Amino acid sequence: MKTFLVILPVIFLALMVAGYYGFVPELSTLLGADKPRDLGIHPTSQDLASAQSKSGVNFSEITSAATPEETLKFSGKIDINNSFTDAEMTAMALDNPWKYNFLKGSQVKFNADGSTEMSGIFYADRLKGYAKAHGINERDIKPALDAVGLLPFNPPYYLKMNVGIQDGHMTMNISDLEIGKINLTSTVVLKENSEAIASFIQDEVINATPGVEVQSLTTSNGALNYKGSFPQTISVAH
Question: Superkingdom, according to UniProt (predicted)?
Answer without folding.
Answer: Bacteria
